[in-house]
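U., I forgot to send this yesterday:
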Amino acid sequence: MRWMMATTVALVVVAISVLYRSNGMVSVHLYIATALGIGFTMLLASALMGLVFLSSGTGHDDSIIDPLEDELNR
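Result:
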């Protein structure tokens, strides 16, 4: 999560600088919304991906009983 936080902060800084270079100083709300939107999206995506790897690595995905498995093998 630390690496993704550092990557997120770097990406937000790059996005804000690109917006500033292309638009100049418009509204501070645009920059706040952009930073929050990119930041929350990146951190949520990394947290969910971490949960997928954790679930797969601990065997929770294999412990499911699939009731449709018998019907598909017929």
